[in-house]
TrEMBL record:
Taxonomic placement: Eukaryota, Viridiplantae, Streptophyta, Embryophyta, Tracheophyta
CDD domains, sorted: GT1_Gtf-like
Family the entry assigns: Belongs to the UDP-glycosyltransferase family.
Molecular-function annotations in GO: quercetin 3-O-glucosyltransferase activity; quercetin 7-O-glucosyltransferase activity
Species this chain originates from: Sesamum radiatum
Keyword annotations of the record: Transferase
Protein name per the record: UDP-glycosyltransferase 74B1
Amino acid sequence: MLGLQRAETSFATTCYTINSINAHGIDVLPISDGFDEGGFKQAPCLEAYLESFRIIGSKTLTELIHSLEASTLPINCLVYDSLLPWGLEVAKSLGILSVVFLTNSVSVCSIYRQIDLGLLPLPVKPENMPVLLPGLPPLGREDMPSFLMEPPNIYLTAIMEMFASLDQNNFVLANTFEKLEDEVAKAMSGLWSVWMVGPIIPSAYLDEQIKTDTEYGGSLWESRGSICTKWLNSMPPESVVYVLFGSMARISANQCQPSRRSGQPGRGVLLDTLWVELNSLEALSLGVPVVAVPQWSDQPMNAKFIEEVWKVGVRAKKDGGGIVRKEEVKRCVGEGWWGKKAKSLGRTL
């Protein structure tokens, strides 16, 4: 996006990732997480990986920025992912601007912010359900970000570390827009300063101001778009359901089977991703109805908003064993595309 606006930008990622990324229109530069041969899978555990990334990533990112000081375009601003809170330390040590990019929705982030400010105590106890917070609908246990309902874990530690230093950043960006989360934006206005810069999706699929902007500019896989498009064009209109699985959530073999046997044609997305917010924004922007199957992290809350707040999709319900059965998938697909809700679902916001 910045590249298309003629802003000089570089994208830094791990050595392991850079060997497989297909990037167009942006400079991709390597830093090390300490596991250059295999990345996350090479690490003995998640805690070891994140600690290594903090120590070695900070060092190699600092060295990278130093190496560019003598160039015609030295780095003067660092935009970092909110799950890498050490980005702030690097920026401050170098005397450059620090900008944290929130990858969760503002609604989800508002919960973490209120925990950091002491307005919502942890752990969240069952007897305190539903949780009532400014700008948000009542949240049951099944709606809360999973990290808050589990024993203390490394992800929650990283998230809370970032929020503890949130105000030290020069800017805070969020991949959302005010119309989408206006109630929570108003409720939180006095508790933080966030710039809503979303939805960050290719312009060709949004406002068409930049018709050549048809992709994100980087992918970990070789593009097979032409093959997929050719196949899709051979299918009858509104006869395909797009099933999207994430890269980190663990999906059991028992869960995969119902997804394959929904037994219904139709258009749309069966959404089950690591960072579901980005894909929710894609569906909302393109007017595609959604069947949400939340697994972990912020997904439960996003699913609640998809069904109850934005009213653009259907949330699949799990059985007693935590599995979304094929009958439930069929119900959701049918309700989303042919049921009473079908006409209102999938509208763009």
